[in-house]
């Protein structure tokens, strides 16, 4: 029998021989390839060098080309080591040749490509063997071929690398064989030292003996490697854990062990007689690491089946099962902050583990997040019935005439055809029903044998008979009590399990329901807080959009699935038929974010009434948030000297003003995503606005960008909840938004409502984790016929002419009824501009939803309304303006200011408002 070292030596020799053969073949092939390539390169280089030598063209055209070129060709051939260098005419008649007898004869190779002006090489077999030749054209200054030069060399002349390298290769092979022999000797010595001198036969017998012992003992053995994979499991261990055939080599965490057992095997922690479970078995596990005293990394575990001890410790086993049931219930119940879902989790978990049918009935106020009633509510006649003890519609009231009204919130059972009333029904429980007694007193009620009819059936005997006939024979009713308040009742019923509920089952049912009640109460409180936050948030957002003619606006607002955020939007009409679009986002969720959003929205409205440009409005908002953050930060003090709530971590905002007269839109943003512009042809671009810092950070100014929008363009503003997700970055979201808005040629008349729908269909996540605000505004243009403006010289005498022109324009607009008041208003405003301002004065009329008068001047001084005394001769101009105009005000421009007024349009002749 060959030794392992001998087998390794034979394998090494075979590998070395295979590598030598492969290397020789590769060397020969590579040498042949390199020789041919070298021959081509050498012949081409010699031919090109000779063809491009100085005086070559004149020698070719001379009367004696042979006499001039033959000596040169021979010197070139001898110096370069090629076999021949031949100069010839374009038709192939040789001028030179190593053999002078062949001069004047036709060249025997291919010359056509060279005669056409191209260089080429070819391989041929000549008298000297396999050769390579190159033919190169000789061209004059005009590029005409005047002759040819051919150079050739045999391949064997440039070969020989393989002959030089073969001895080296054979020497390396001999050295490899020597190293293999030495390595085999070392391995043999190592193996003998490791096996203590045992030969293979003795090792085989020893292994067979150990294997027989290992698999025949009634104690399980598991060996785990240092990487956490199972190395060995004997037959007993496989039986105890029901291991698959391919268990060896797999991670212990993948083999279905109990989590505690898997953790012990993977940890390497020493243990002695620890009790673990394997299905229905109890195992005593001892565990030791194997890397002590220089052993291999890993551990070994021995297992003993102690299931028989359960006969002597039944109470302990029952307690363990109940503890495991309660532990699993804590993991399975209360996974969400939803009252209905938590109640259903309780019902589903208890079925098949503790009962056959489970129902959960809660007070209606609990489902809405409110406090539960005292347990006795509602007059007679409320439709509904329920589980055992519930009265059907029209049931006779009990003696006190009062019923406990609960709603069936959760229902689960081993079958679906039970005589229990379905989900959602409002159930009236009389005082004799276990559910009513439990809800009113907070006590657990046990009906061990329902067929005895101990009073629970008095309210509806027929319904009780159907329940008993169906097979439901035992019931426990447990109140859902949390923090001293009873929220409802849970009823556990058995049908297929023959054992009735006993007093011992009460503690388990109470523990199970108590854990669920805390989760339901948490969900109730969350529902209340969420409802309050959503109500506050929606009360702070615009209910309806204001009327204006500059933009067609559609919007969508979707709150987050859990918690409310601080997203908001606004459409604010401004003087001069302009409209402001605002969208913002307060960082964070909850009541604090919603309240902060309301404060910011109110501030935006107030700043907008001042008619400030977007960058100044953002600056004021930045200062406001800084002050709020300072007042509400943990470092601030409330009235009692204590720290107040959380500070604001930041907010973003985008403010845009659109003018339908000039079609110009001015925008500024503070840390907000850029707006999208959908042009009338359906193409989409994201506007490159200066990216200011988020509000509240301070330190950097805000900048505005102004652009002119074509009529029918759509401006799209949104918050980051639309484009950003945990599994999707912002760039991907922007591309999805671009694709959803883009409609080149497909929907030429797509409305803003259609655009909102398309965007949400493409980007709305299944479970929004952040609020989403979206505004799509399509631009309109005020018709040129509804605007008029005049330049007014700085001369009081010119006011009369302007008044006459205004009267004519109002008559053209069929607004003669307001001509007098309009003339009076403009007279006062123009006169003030002439008196107190310098430079040009311009008057503009706009007929929109109201009649707008604007006077432009170059002064930055704002007029102030004052009330003149009885004896004062002046000071009544602005007072008259304020009395005749519905609204008036001032806004500043880059080169002065504008004083504007608005007057309501008179009704038409049939008494209807003008459109």
Shape call: flat
User: Reading side by side through the largest sheet, how are the strands ordered?
Assistant: 11-13-12-10-16-15-14
**Residue share in β-strands:** 15-25%
Largest sheet: 7 strands, antiparallel
Poorly predicted runs of 5 or more residues: 375-401, 636-645
Q: Approximately how much helix is present in the residues?
A: 25-40%
- End-to-end separation: 110 Å
Number of strands: 32
- Computed over alpha carbons, the radius of gyration is 49 Å
**DSSP helical segment count:** 21
Give the helix/strand class: alpha+beta
Summarize model confidence as the mean pLDDT: 81
Short description:
The protein is α+β, with helices and mostly antiparallel strands and 915 residues long. It has 21 helices and 32 strands.
Describe this structure in words.
- It contains 21 helices and 32 strands.
- The protein has a seven-stranded antiparallel beta sheet with strand order 11-13-12-10-16-15-14, with helices on both faces. Strands 18, 19, 20, 21, 24 and 25 form a six-stranded mixed beta sheet that branches.
- Strand 20 (651-659) and strand 21 form a beta hairpin.
- The N and C termini lie far apart (110 Å).
């Amino acid at each position: 029998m060959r030794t392992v070292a001998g087998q390794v030596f034979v394998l090494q020799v075979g590998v070395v021989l295979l590598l030598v053969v492969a290397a020789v073949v590769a060397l020969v092939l590579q040498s042949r390839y390199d020789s041919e390539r070298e021959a081509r390169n050498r012949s081409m280089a010699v031919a090109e060098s000779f063809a491009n030598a100085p005086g070559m063209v004149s020698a070719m055209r001379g009367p004696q080309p042979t006499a001039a070129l033959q000596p040169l060709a021979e010197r070139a051939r001898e110096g370069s080591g090629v076999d021949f260098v031949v100069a010839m005419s374009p038709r192939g008649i040789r001028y030179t040749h190593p053999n002078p007898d062949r001069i004047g004869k036709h060249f025997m190779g291919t010359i056509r490509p060279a005669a056409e002006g191209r260089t080429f090489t070819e391989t041929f077999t000549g008298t000297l063997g396999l050769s390579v030749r190159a033919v190169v054209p000789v061209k004059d200054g005009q590029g005409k071929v005047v002759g040819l030069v051919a150079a050739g060399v045999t391949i064997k002349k440039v070969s020989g690398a393989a002959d030089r390298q073969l001895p080296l290769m054979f020497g390396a092979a001999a050295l490899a064989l020597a190293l293999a022999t030495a390595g085999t000797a070392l391995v043999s010595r190592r193996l003998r030292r490791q096996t203590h001198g045992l030969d293979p036969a003795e090792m085989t017998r020893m292994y067979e003996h150990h294997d027989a012992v290992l698999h025949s003992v009634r104690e399980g053995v598991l060996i785990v490697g240092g990487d956490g994979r199972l190395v060995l499991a004997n037959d007993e261990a496989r039986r105890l854990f029901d291991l698959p055939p391919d268990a060896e080599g797999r991670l212990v965490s993948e083999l279905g062990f109990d989590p505690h057992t898997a953790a012990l095997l993977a940890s390497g922690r020493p243990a002695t007689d620890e009790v673990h479970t394997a299905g229905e078995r109890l195992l005593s596990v001892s565990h030791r690491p194997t890397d002590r005293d220089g052993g291999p990394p890993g551990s070994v575990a021995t297992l003993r089946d102690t299931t028989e001890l359960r006969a002597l410790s039944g109470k302990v086993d029952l307690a363990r099962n109940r503890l495991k049931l309660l532990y699993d219930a804590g993991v399975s119940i209360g996974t969400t902050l939803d009252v209905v879902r938590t109640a259903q989790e309780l019902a589903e978990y208890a079925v098949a583990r503790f009962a056959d049918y489970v129902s959960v009935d809660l007070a209606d106020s609990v489902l809405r997040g409110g406090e539960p009633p005292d347990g006795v509510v509602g007059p007679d006649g409320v439709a509904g019935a329920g589980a055992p003890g519930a009265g059907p519609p029209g049931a006779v009231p009990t003696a006190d005439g009062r019923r406990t009204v609960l709603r069936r919130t959760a229902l689960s059972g081993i079958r679906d055809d039970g005589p229990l009333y379905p989900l959602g029904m409002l159930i009236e429980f009389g005082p004799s029903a276990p559910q009513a007694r439990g809800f009113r007193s907070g006590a657990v009620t046990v009906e061990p044998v329902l067929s005895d009819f101990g009073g629970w059936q008095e309210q509806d005997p027929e319904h009780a008979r159907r329940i008993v006939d169906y097979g439901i024979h035992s019931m426990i009713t447990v109140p859902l009590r949390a923090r001293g308040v009873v929220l409802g009742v849970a009823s556990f019923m058995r049908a297929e399990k023959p054992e009735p509920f006993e007093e011992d089952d009460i503690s388990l049912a109470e523990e199970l329901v108590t854990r669920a009640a805390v989760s339901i109460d948490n969900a109730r409180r969350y529902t209340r807080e969420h409802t309050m936050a959503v109500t506050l948030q929606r009360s702070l957002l615009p209910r309806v959009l204001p009327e204006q003619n500059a933009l067609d606006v559609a919007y969508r607002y979707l709150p987050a699935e859990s918690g409310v955020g601080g997203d908001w939007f606004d459409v604010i009409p401004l003087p001069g038929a302009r409209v402001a679009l605002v969208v913002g986002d307060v960082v964070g969720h909850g009541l604090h974010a919603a309240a902060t959003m309301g404060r910011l929205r109110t501030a935006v409205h107030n700043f907008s009434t001042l008619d400030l440009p977007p960058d100044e409005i953002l600056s004021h908002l930045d200062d406001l948030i800084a002050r709020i953050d300072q007042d509400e930060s943990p470092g601030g003090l409330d009235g009692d000297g204590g720290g107040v709530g959380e500070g604001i971590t930041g907010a973003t905002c985008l403010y845009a003003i659109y003018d339908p007269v000039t079609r110009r839109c001015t925008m500024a943003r503070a840390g907000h995503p850029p707006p999208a512009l959908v042009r009338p042809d359906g193409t989409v671009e994201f506007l490159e606005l200066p990216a200011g810092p988020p509000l509240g950070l301070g330190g950097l100014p805000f900048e505005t960008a102004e652009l002119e929008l074509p009529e029918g363009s759509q401006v799209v503003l949104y918050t980051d909840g639309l484009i950003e997700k945990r599994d999707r970055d912002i760039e991907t979201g922007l591309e999805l938004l671009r694709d959803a808005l883009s409609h080149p040629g497909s929907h030429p008349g797509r409305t803003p409502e259609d655009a909102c729908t398309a965007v949400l269909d493409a980007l709305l996540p299944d479970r929004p984790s952040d609020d989403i605000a979206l505004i799509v505004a399509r631009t309109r243009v005020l018709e040129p016929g509804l605007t008029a403006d005049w330049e007014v010289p700085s001369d009081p005498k010119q006011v009369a002419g302007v008044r006459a022109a205004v009267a004519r324009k109002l008559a053209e607009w069929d607004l003669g009824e307001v001509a007098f008041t309009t003339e009076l208003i403009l007279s006062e405003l123009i006169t003030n501009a002439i008196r107190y301002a310098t430079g040009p004065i311009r008057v503009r009329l706009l007929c929109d939803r109201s009649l707008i008068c604007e006077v432009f001047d170059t002064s930055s001084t704002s007029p102030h309304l004052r009330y003149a005394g009885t004896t004062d001769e002046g000071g009544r101009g602005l007072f008259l303006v304020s009395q005749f105009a519905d609204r008036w005000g001032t806004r500043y421009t880059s080169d002065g200011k504008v004083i504007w007024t608005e007057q309501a349009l008179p009704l038409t002749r049939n008494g209807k408002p003008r459109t």
